[in-house]
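Quick look at the format.
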Amino acid sequence: MMDVATLTALLREAEEHHGAYEATAPPHHWSDWYAGYIVARQHGRSDLQAVADATLVVEGAPR
């Protein structure tokens, strides 16, 4: 279980990275990208690896 402070920090981190992705992204719902990002970070992936993982979630690549 994640505490509120940790989730808040991850959501803000995801928000920062999603802004850059949003400029060139295909149509998608932000929550799909954020969820992919947060799950990746929970599994120990770096922020840049989490960006790649979240992008794969949105763009339909196998996970």
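Next, a different chain entirely:
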Amino acid sequence: MGKYVELNTNGEKVKDITLNDAVWGIEPNNAVLYDAIILSRASLRQGTHKTKTRSEVSGGGIKPWRQKGTGRARQGSIRAPHWVGGGTVFGPTPNRNYTKKMNRKERRLALKSALAYKVLEKELIVVDSLNVESTKTKEMLKVLENLKANRKTLIVVEELTDNLILATRNLESVILLDADEINTLDVVSADNMIITEAAVKRIEEVLI
């Protein structure tokens, strides 16, 4: 796919880097990418939702009026589903399993498709390294400003450091991952992706 510009934390060009076509230059597969996103979002659901049936709501233990002679329709309980405050019919039950299955080749293809989109849409920023000298959030904000990453940003490094973790933890718009934790949902949901050269090599080793 040719050369890609590598920057330093000041936003200055360091050199040109060659990204592997087998990872970053493929034609994205939208169908597999969609399935992977649905799978990831479904796995985040707890499945603990619950509504009460007519046997679980309080009250309604007595017949509201006699069966015949009132001129009204017969009723057995004021907690039947058609009554206000009554039980719910076919409502959600707890411990529902939302997990979906996807084979390994599809997962890898989905991640490579997400990475390829980052290159195609010019949302990928490759840096030589990302070492911050202090734990100050202000220093990390300066780096993001230099790299023109002002929107939701995914930062991928080869190894997490204490300074980097502490400098980014108060930034709601920043997701920090090491190269082994990278996933399709985080890549797609970020507007910009900052990645170190070492992390690029690590990802290519795994996905090729």
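The domain at 3-45+102-207 is CATH 3.40.1370.10 (Ribosomal Protein L4; Chain: A;).

See the schema section for token definitions.
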